[in-house]
Amino acid sequence: MLQVEVDDKTIARCRALAAEVADEVQGFIDGHTTVGVERTVARAYGVDGVDDTGTPLVNLLVDRVREAGLLGRGVAAVLADHMHRTGLDVSTAAEELAYGSAPLEAPSTPRPTLEEILRQATKSALDRLDAARDRREANKARLSMGATPWRYLIVATGNIHDDALQAGAAAAAGADVIAVIRATAQSLLDYVPHGATTEGYGGTYATQENFRILRAALDEAGETRGRYVMGCNYSSGLCMAEIAYLGALEGLDMLLNDSMYGILFRDINMRRTLVDQYFSRRILARSRVILNTGEDNYLTTADAIEAAHTVLTSQFINEGFARRAGVRDRELGLGHAYEIDPDVEDSFVLELAQALLVRRIFHEHPIKWMPPTKHKTGDIFQGHVHDAMFSLVGSMSHQSIQLLGMFSEAVHNPLMMDRYLSLKATNYVMRATQTLAQNLALAPNSALQKRADQVLEEALTLLQQVRDDTLWNAIAEGAFGDIKRTPEGGKGLHGVAPRHADYLNPLLDALEAP
Amino acid sequence: MSQAESKVLRAYGDRQGDGMVQMTFTLELAPSPLAKEAARRFAQAHGLDEVLVVAMEACGPEHSYFVVYGHSRHSVDVSRIEVPSVDVPDLSHKEIEQFVMQELGRKIVLVGACTGSDAHTVGIDAILNIKGYKGDKGLESYSCFQVFNLGAQVENDSLIARAHANSADAILVSQVITQRGCHKENGRALVEMLEARGERDRFVLLFGGPRIDHKLALELGFDAGFGPGTLPRHVAGVIAHTLVKRRKEQT
pLDDT value at position A449? Predict the structure, then answer.
């Protein structure tokens, strides 16, 4: 059996260090909330819809709460207090507060009363999430899932109806996961757009209605094909928790939800993202949605050989955060990528070493394996071969979620036929090498083993540094992706508030309950 | 290009003048003899003779993908083509630094950004970051440049504001996303804003990205454009020469 040897004690030390890193940040998370968290709570209580200008009601409501300096009390407390005083139901109370002009007052109702008022609404919110999860699980059991590696394909037309058509075609051709790439600037929107959308640059807006439309298309394709087809979307940015909640509600199976991607690649404030990722991951854990991480992106800005250990380090840290949010290892799709310069000698050997190392360390995890993008040139024929080598590593090292490489990467959004050809080539490689790894073993003192040892050793050293510096300072010093971000910098800091001693969030309490 | 005798070329397949090309495309038809004939005629309509439809496979519910070969009737007279090119000497890293210090005697200040909603910094980073691209160090590593890389999703007005705040000599704009021509719109908008402020000539304007070339950049009103495969050294040389030339013209 082809695998690299690793010292279990070294892995345990890496995990212990990552746990320390995550615990230090968790102290901050547990003392803070954000506008994104509170909007999610309001949505869960049924606050829905938009005003004449398209502003979601949850934004109007939570912005008023924030402007009144009450964000740290929690929107749940403000809502329940108003319900107690007026006798209104939750959505009418929300509308009164959102559209009202009278200044909001600090809740004065005793906490047990507020909790009692929301008891039924909290239960209903959880029931809705659980029902969506159970429906998905039942469909998966009935139709069954494809064997891993799952073939993951992207659609990104900008128009959800075209996406649904393309998704159906890809599913019919053998894709197991369909991801809808978001419109390029959505990560910076401090609200979730409403309704079905047909215009978007670089992708399609993530909205509740768009999630619903894609789910219906995938279900239809799944029934025809007799196999469950998973849906995937993306949540980095200013609305991590809302997107996680809306996705879970509309039957999403997989969500990109990295603890640091938004900070590094979208310049979202780090306090904001670290608080948001926690609440969003609590929802994903409850709903058993597979959480994908994005450290593969480090290799698009940093050198894939020199920075290999930063990916592994980030995987340990993402795992630390995910475990603190109750995410099970089997639902944690840590990411890595085939991004070494193909002109480098033995680049394939280096890629295989890393892939085997990640597989060996995270053996329960549905590892996400990303295709080459950085060194794609527009020579589509060479790109097709490049992708085949990537698929071969995926097959030999048993990666779980195989994103399909596109030969037209760096040229245009994939055409229907590009997806078809990529699936055809990937299926060929997988079929041809099904038992290859079982027939192979590493030679003694192999360069491949040495490379794996080196990357693990470097990750251990970096984890020690991050532990000593704290994650905040490590990010500020450019430890990941060669990108530096400061705790006060980036977008969205104004939406972070310390939790008041009387902070109320019955939804989080329920999600955190063992 | 000199006005020499005409040089007419056809596509070179196996022999000179055979005009052989391949084409791949998708038609909204399930595979069938009719679909194959449709593909052949579609290729003929593109000027291909003796069309061979060598592959026809279903790639969607009602879609077939085709690979065809044929002899293209078309030719091109390369003697009649003029391509604007950036006409500067090819200098090394060191030579560029010496050139700037000799001719200007000070550092050139650069601001660069990926503008509009485009969130992809890969292009601007490849040119500006010390790390560079394909072993060629980025502009931050040059002693003759002071570089402000503003990153992604920078709006044109804030880019101009930063150029002013830093007394920039040159503005570098990267555009990776090209859906529905948004890269051209963003680029043109920047030039128009500068023109409206009467400041177009105050900055050397450079435009880069995977779907950009020098010709497009000139059409949009930039001083130079850079496409895929551009090394930081090329950009450095163009900035240095364009700026020195302009400063000489202005004095």
Answer: 98
Please enumerate in sequence order all residues whose Cβ is within 8 A of that of A387, keeping only pairs 6 or more positions apart, or say none: A371, A372, A404, A405, A406, A407, A422, A425, A426
Nearest to A3 by CA among A399, A359, A350: A359
> Nearest-CA neighbor of B242 among B85, B87, B95?
B87
Mean pLDDT across chain B, nearest whole number? 91
Inter-axis angle of helices A57-67 and A90-99, nearest 10: 60
Residue A143, CA atoms < 13 Å, CB-side half-sphere: 22
Q: How far is CA A19 from the centre of its chain?
A: 20
pLDDT in tens, B91-103: 899 999 999 999 9
Neighbours of A126 (CB within 10 A): 16
Percent of chain B residues past pLDDT 70, beyond the cut: 98
Q: In degrees rounded to 5, what are phi and psi of residue B122?
A: -55, -40
Measured distance CA(B165)–CA(B155) in Å, rounded: 15
Angle of helix A416-432 versus helix A380-396 axis, rounded to 10: 40
Of the candidates B119, B178, B180, the beta carbon closest to that of A185 is on: B119
Using only C-alpha atoms, what is the Rg of chain B?
Answer: 23
Within 8 A of B177 by CB-CB distance, chain A residues are 184, 201-202
Instruction: Tell me the C-alpha distance between A298 and B222, whole Å.
Output: 32
Q: Is the pLDDT assigned to residue B2 strictly greater than 60? A: no
Phi, psi angle pair for B5, to nearest 5°: -65, 155
Say which of A163, A191, A368, A418 is annotated catalytic.
Answer: A368
* CA closest to A485 among chain B residues: B151
Which residues of chain A are under the pLDDT cut of 50?
none
Of A451, A345, A447, A347, nearest to A392 by C-alpha is: A347
Q: What is the pLDDT averaged over residues B132-152?
A: 88
Residue A402: in which H helix or E strand, if any? strand A401-403
State how far the Cα of B144 lies from the Cα of B166, in Å rounded to an integer.
15
pLDDT at A247: 98
Contacts of A310 in chain B (CB under 8 A): none
Asked if the Cβ–Cβ distance from A416 to B228 is below 8 Å, we say no
Checking if the pLDDT of B3 tops 60, the result is no
Please return the burial class of A268, using the count of CB atoms within 10 Å of its CB with bins 0-12, 13-18 and 19+: buried
Q: What is the pLDDT of residue A402?
A: 97
Pairwise CA distance, residues A362 & A194, whole Å: 38
**Is residue B87 pLDDT above 90, yes or no?**
no
pLDDT digits (tens, 9 = 90+) for A42-85: 999 999 999 999 999 999 999 999 999 999 999 999 999 999 99
Phi, psi of A326 (to 5 degrees): 80, 10
Residue A443: CA count within 13 A, CB half-sphere:
5
Q: What is the distance in angstroms between the Cα of B49 and the nearest Cα belonging to chain A?
A: 24
Alpha helices in A288-415 (DSSP H): 298-301, 308-324, 347-361, 380-396
The whole-number pLDDT of residue A292 equals: 98
Above 80 in pLDDT, residue B131? Answer: no
Q: State yes or no: is B248 an active-site residue.
A: no
**Sheet hosting strand B63-72, strand order edge to edge:** B20-27, B63-72, B48-60
Residue B1: pLDDT band by 50, 70, 90 thresholds?
Answer: very low
pTM of the model: 0.86
Residue A366 to residue A329: CA distance in whole angstroms: 8
Residue B55's alpha-carbon distances to A69, A153, A418, B23, B46, in angstroms, are: 66, 23, 15, 11, 18
For chain B, first and last CA: distance in Å? 32
Whole-complex ipTM: 0.84
Please tell me which residue in B36, B107, B131, B215 is annotated as part of the active site: B131
The CA–CA distances, whole Å, from A127 to A44, A216, A245 equal: 10, 21, 13
Question: pLDDT grade, residue B4 (50/70/90)?
Answer: low
Whether the bond between A149 and the residue before it is cis, its omega within 30 degrees of 0, is yes
